[in-house]
Amino acid sequence: MLDAVAQRYSYLPSKLLCDADSFDIMVYDVAISYEKMIRDRQEVKVDQKMFDQKELEERFNEVKNR
Predict the structure, then answer these.
(1) Domain interval for residue 37
(2) Dihedral sign for Cα atoms in the order 22, 7, 13, 36
(3) Predicted confidence band at 55 (pLDDT cuts at 50, 70, 90)?
(4) Which backbone phi and psi does 24 adopt, to 5 degrees?
(5) Any residues with CB less than 8 A from the CB of 40 and at least 6 apart, and which?
(6) What average pLDDT does range 41-58 have in this prediction?
(7) CB within 10 Å: which end of the chain, N or C, has fewer?
(8) How far, in Å, are 7, 15, 26 from residue 11 at the CA level?
(9) pTM above 0.70?
């Protein structure tokens, strides 16, 4: 991950080790996750790990029974 962060932000890994903190890693993770979500949305892909089938069924039944 260190290499990926350094490459993305054009920063030397050694400088990253000295200057970065956990907030930088969190920002990187959020940015990468958001980009993946946008790509998947454009390609009409759904990550099944994002959804719990039981919870979706419960919500569907709540709306259906109104």
Answers:
(1) 2-64
(2) positive
(3) confident
(4) -60, -40
(5) 46, 47
(6) 79
(7) C
(8) 7, 7, 16
(9) no
